[in-house]
Each structure stands twice: as C-alpha cells, then as structure tokens.
Design brief:
- The protein is α+β, with helices and mostly antiparallel strands and 122 residues long.
- The chain is 31% helix and 14% strand.
- Strands 1, 2, 3, 4 and 5 form a 5-stranded antiparallel sheet that branches.
- About 11% of the residues have low confidence.
- The protein has one domain.
Length: 122
C-alpha cells in the first residue's frame, strides 16, 4: 500500500521527532520546541536542522530583524497576505525564512507553523 505525499510527510515528521526525542532524552524534551519568540532566544539548533519548507523542502533559517520588520510593516499596513490568500492580522515576533528568502513561516507561541498556506511572502 502506497502512502500519498501528505501522509508520507506526516509519517516522516513524526519519525524525525521521535528520533530527536530519543537522542535528547526526557529532560531535554522541553527544549525540542522553539523557545518563546524573543530577540535573545532562538530555536533549538537540532530541531532547526531537521525542519524544511513544507512546499519546496528547502532548508529554513531563523528570520532576521530586517525580514521581520519588512513583513510586520506590511501587516500594520494591512497589505500582508499569506500563501493561502488570508490577510495576516498579527505581527510576527519570530519566524523561519526559506533558504531562497521568499517565504517566512511564523513561529507562534514558540511553535513553528510549517503549513504551506501559512507562509508569508518575504
């Protein structure tokens, strides 16, 4: 039985998460999630290495202040729309930017939102 691409991605994400939890141990499990978005905190490096753009599979990096400022300026002007076409109403505190720099995925409450439709053009 062959899994469709979405089911394969979900299965891979679960397997990757389990692998990271096994390597980290029970005390480090809390660190597996992104830290609350503050300028002096960053997402766990091991987790960041495992994450990829859900659309193109490109590597992701933490969005810099310049990228966040550009996106947030469009949010304040009420002109920022995500890939799904929905108006973005909440400013980003942190995000993950795709390797080509075209899309930013928000980090909300310390959790990266890696859904294709939630990506915001940088």
């Amino acid at each position: 039985m062959r899994l469709d691409s979405r089911a394969r991605r979900v299965k891979l994400a679960r397997r990757s998460r389990s692998e990271l939890e096994r390597r980290a141990g029970p005390r480090d499990t809390v660190r597996l999630m992104a830290s609350p978005a503050k300028s002096h905190r960053s997402i766990d490096r091991d987790l960041l290495e495992m994450l990829a753009c859900p659309d193109t599979r490109q590597r992701l990096a933490e969005a810099g202040a310049d990228v966040l400022d550009r996106v947030n300026a469009r949010v304040r002007a009420k002109t920022a729309k995500n890939v799904g076409g929905k108006l973005v109403e909440v400013e980003l505190e942190a995000g993950l930017v795709r390797h080509d720099g075209k899309i930013v995925y928000p980090i909300r409450d310390g959790i990266p939102v890696l859904l294709v439709d939630e990506g915001i053009p940088a």
